[in-house]
Amino acid sequence: MGKWKVQGDSAAGGMLLLGVATFLLLFCSISAPIIDTVRMFRLVVNINGYKRYADFGIWGYCVPPIKTGKRTSLPNFDPSVIEGCSKSSLGYTVGSVVASSLRAPALETALSKVHTAALVLVPVATGLAFIAFVLSVSVFFTSRSKSIGAPAGVKTITGIFIFNSFATLVSIIAFVVQITVVATIKGRISKIRATNGNLTLNWDNMIWLMVIAIICQIMNMVVLFSTRNGLVAHEKHEQKTVSKTSRKNNDLPPLIHDKVHSGEKAYDGSVP
Asked: What is the recorded membrane topology of this protein (predicted)?
């Protein structure tokens, strides 16, 4: 019963952590321009007292209209500015659209397609996290239903731990790629600010979603490691119990030992 309890409690915690991680990574995978409210970073420039934004995500960018209020936008009178979102693509550059909108021509070559194409690791990490989540769900329901077989053993939990470690590593690498992308364009902006002091860069919500997702994955690995250690300790305890029982039986006199193993009552020498 102890083995079932160890797995049931830890599997529930691991399932919850991986569910949260998968959900957050999924949001990161469908960031701008698919969902323009999920952004890796935002470029901001002040134009005639109004702020012009350019939002960047995994697959491209968006140039929203200049807002004069919560629900009102300023009409675009500049023919060189194209408002809206780019097409989703694997790898992109800042391009002339964003550079013209922010009045910073030097931004056009700030990012390379090869560099931003590496952001595809984010949806890859999402897929791996989902598989890890499915594995944790299977362990949870296995620990809840004894009728479908024995609980997962040490080898199974170890295998799941190794896979989750790989999934977490991919998430960390994807996060590092994001940081390098933002750091690259931030370095270019530092040079541009010498001539255009209004241009700034803001880290955005996608970075923090990735951080929380990775923390959840690491916490799940701790849970799995603890579960594995608990199962190892439980199996050692069972082996010791079986060994002690066997040793006691072997210490009995030969006649009594045979009677005990044959299920017969041993004669103790007393007169009935």
From this structure: Multi-pass membrane protein
